[in-house]
Amino acid sequence: MLVLDVSGSMSGDPISLLSKGVNQFIQEVCQDDFASLAVEVGIITFGSTVDEVTPIQSILGISTPTFSAMGRTPMGAAVSRAIEVLENRKQQYQKHGVPYYQPWIVLMTDGEPTDEYLKAAAQLRELAEDSKMLVFGIGIGDHCNLKKLAEFCPANRPPKKLAEYRFREFFQWLSQSMAKVSVSTPGTGVELPNTKGWDTIQI
């Protein structure tokens, strides 16, 4: 689940590069024989409103999304919606006895929450620390409040700052990560590619 900040401060190059990066990610995963069949993606944006731009579905069925920047930063409401959607999806899999990978939430923002976010942050952090979700907090630009973004993330995976506006490199890393996970067995650990190229601090 991509949970993306489209507030007014993202206008200009950031929102344009974000759109290109997301579309590149979709295209690259679709070109991978295994990942294209295994990966489901949903996209939730938060700005003037919280919108489920892309309901969670097979990546092969996703239409190319475009984003526009306006409004404030209701990050708490967006994260609550993402958790609800992903938990419902997991319940569907459990009901039908389908093995699944724990979902990933990629939370990208260039600012800080402007709504009541503490409950959502605590819930997401708890899910991550219980290994029920993988959470990646990504800070964009020089004005992102990484301290507040860290409240959404588990202690062992603090947020990372995107070097400059390297959305293309980040989403390339994400597609490579999806390719590695898609050929693994659900429930087993996977060593992810190095984040060199998009991150100011590598893992």
Looking at the overall shape, the CATH architecture is 3-Layer(aba) Sandwich
What is the highest CATH level, the class? Alpha Beta
The count of β-strands is 6
Helix content: 25-40%
Total individual domains: 1
Order of helices and strands: EHHEEHEHEHEH
Distance between the amino and carboxyl termini: 21 Å
Low-confidence stretches: none
Strand content: 15-25%
Main beta-sheet annotation: 6 strands, mixed
Superfamily at the CATH H level? von Willebrand factor, type A domain
Cα-based radius of gyration, to the nearest Å: 16 Å
Strands side by side in the biggest sheet? 3-2-1-4-5-6
Q: Would you give the CATH topology? A: Rossmann fold
Shape: globular
Can you count the helices? 6
SSE class: alpha/beta
Mean pLDDT: 91
Protein name: Glycosyl transferase family 2
GO molecular function: transferase activity
Organism: Brasilonema sennae CENA114
Domain VWFA: 1-181
Detailed description of the structure:
- The chain is built from 6 helices and 6 strands.
- A 6-stranded mixed beta sheet has the order 3-2-1-4-5-6.
- It has a single domain (2-182), classed as Rossmann fold (3-Layer(aba) Sandwich).
- It has helices spanning 13-30, 35-38, 75-95, 118-129, 146-150, 167-182, and strands at residues 2-5, 40-46, 50-58, 104-109, 134-139, 160-161.
- The relative contact order is 0.17.
- With 203 residues, the protein is α/β, with parallel strands linked by helices.
- 37% of the residues lie in helices and 17% in strands.
- It comes from Brasilonema sennae CENA114.
- Keywords: Transferase.
- This is Glycosyl transferase family 2.
- One of its GO terms (molecular function) is transferase activity.
- InterPro entries: Tellurite-R_TerY, VWF_A, vWFA_dom_sf.
